[in-house]
Amino acid sequence: MKRIAVLTSGGDCSGMNATLRAVVRAGLVSGLEVIGIQKGYQGLIDRLYEQMSTRSVSNILQRGGTFLQSARCKEMRTAAGLKLASDNLKGMGVEGLIVIGGDGSLKGGYAIQQQGIPVIGIPASIDNDIPFTDYSLGVDTALNNIVHAVDNLKDTASSHDRTFVVETMGRSCGFLAVAAAIATGAEYSLIPEEPYNLDQICADLRNRFQEGRTNSIIMVAEGAGKAADIADQIKHRIGFETRIIVLGHYQRGGSPSVFDRILGARFGQAAVESLLKGDGGMMVGLQGADIVLTDLTKVTSSGIRPINPMLPRLANQLLA
Ligand code: F6P
């Protein structure tokens, strides 16, 4: 194997740059040429790429986002787009591709693998919804961002006896909301994986208020409801003064945490090593303390990573 390529695709996250640095440098020290594809699969289709040197990835480790840029590419889901992307890779003499991205991006990688080009996927999505890895890249930094925001909100909530509803990202996975609730001591976490009863929550809020607990934080994952609707309903049902914050893309940026930097380094190096060993059609993942390879067929057909039921239970228990 002489030449590999790497791209970042889908929603960006912190730690992508650290991973790109690891891929490029691990590739170069193994004697490979490394091509960086810009703007994800769109760049592959449009032939936007550059040859990477060790200097190309200097001074990016600590930066959020992805210096290669990313995109959500509809064309990749068509047969014509997939063929163009694969033909372009072959035309560039690329013998192995590393895809850093979320579930849709890994599906794209699997499709390219089926066109005969070995692909290794690296799970990257703040949602932590990708199966066969305990953590995806970017999750830890996003959680730190959320915790910082909620800690600040708690100061002002307690000064004004207010209920804050905080909306996190997580289209179909409530990991960020529930993990942040545990880390901040938020009173509730509403997640898509578990039904919730707003009447019960309102009754609890009223009781807590009577006991002197006059402010509260309700975390809601975007897939479980809109912060504005929930706040309106609380106000309407029990008259509490509510405020909302939608954390949105703030969660995805910022300098990566130590955990994400090291995870990115480990994922990147393992992906290069796997290609060199002749693997393809696999995803690297963190399972316990180990980096483990899982077949992309399994990853892309297993649906959303299930939430550990211990997490919502723990969040509730600690509120007693
Ligand atoms: O998949 C990651 C994610 O951050 C989701 O949590 C969120 O719903 C979505 O991306 C937002 O996508 P975009 O950046 O395209 O608006």
From TrEMBL:
It is an enzyme of class 2 (transferase). Pathway: Carbohydrate degradation; glycolysis; D-glyceraldehyde 3-phosphate and glycerone phosphate from D-glucose: step 3/4. This is ATP-dependent 6-phosphofructokinase. Allosterically activated by ADP and other diphosphonucleosides, and allosterically inhibited by phosphoenolpyruvate. Residues 3-274 form the Phosphofructokinase domain. Its main location: cytoplasm. It comes from the Bacteria. ATP binds at residues 11, 72-73, 102-105. Its EC number is 2.7.1.11. HAMAP family: Phosphofructokinase_I_B1. Catalyzes the phosphorylation of D-fructose 6-phosphate to fructose 1,6-bisphosphate by ATP, the first committing step of glycolysis. GO terms for molecular function: 6-phosphofructokinase activity; AMP binding; ATP binding; fructose-6-phosphate binding; identical protein binding; metal ion binding; monosaccharide binding. GO terms for cellular component: 6-phosphofructokinase complex.
